[in-house]
Amino acid sequence: MRPLTIKHTTFGEGPPKICIPIIGRREEDILEAAETITTLPADVVEWRADHYEAVAEPGAVPPVLDALRKKLPDTLLLFTFRTKKEGGVRELSDSDYLELCRAVAKSGLADLLDLELFTGALAPEPDGQATTGGQAAADRRARPVANPGLLAPVITLAHAHGGHVVLSSHDFQKTPSENELYRRLFLMESMGADLAKLAVMPNCEQDVLTLLSATRKAADALNVPVITMSMGRIGAVSRISGRLTGSCMTFGTAGEESAPGQLPAKTLKHILETL
Q1: Residue 170: active-site member
Q2: What are φ and ψ of residue 80, in 5° steps?
Q3: What sign results for the dihedral spanned by CA atoms 160, 161, 166, 169?
Q4: What is the tens place of the pLDDT at every residue in 167-211?
Q5: Quick one: DSSP state of residue 239?
Q6: Coil, strand or helix: which one is 232?
Q7: What does DSSP assign to residue 129?
Q8: Per the residue annotation, which of 17, 51, 197, 269 is the catalytic one?
Q9: Out of 170, 217, 266, 269, which one is annotated catalytic?
């Protein structure tokens, strides 16, 4: 991978950078969490705006972003609205989701904007046993089909206003095959991502190894830095092994976790330094 420097932080060089999510429901909760994070080892702060109760109100998001920017002037700010289908707490239509992301991109207040790779995608065919073609045929049937035309204008807008884009894909049910994981990361790069992110759920130990192997291959082959994690307790090793696998960022908590298996930020920092 080619390292990416945003302000004073370089992704893809040295230990994985630590990102701490904020998941408050009200503005005061969000800013209180930001104040707590000032005492923690955070390279990036992610505002998970799907938890914010006023997120769908016109004009509600930029003032909170501005307040976060002032609270955390030296920390990279990542804006994420995680849709319900990818593990978030609130649903928006594709058009409302894209409008929200456009407003954030245009504001220039977020250093990083998370966009879900399969926004507006066609649903995959149901999983099942392959009758012809073996596993490769089963993989093809299970692949969502991305719609680059929906995301391209938002990616362009973010870049035009000095932002960087994290294209992401989340599967809270399973771990796709290694080939499918690699395909998604490669697709993210081809669509203009500055960082490519995958989060998957393991159902056995082998699933964790599949994710780690796909990460190493992608980190060696792609130009953009990659961020990957295997969720839940058995996937916790993926959150501390980025220096080995090539995953450039990991997520730690300041309290409540935003995804299964996250470790407290101070514990995460200690482990990464020890390794």
Answers
A1: yes
A2: -135, 125
A3: negative
A4: 999 999 999 999 999 999 999 999 999 999 999 999 999 999 999
A5: G
A6: coil
A7: -
A8: 197
A9: 170
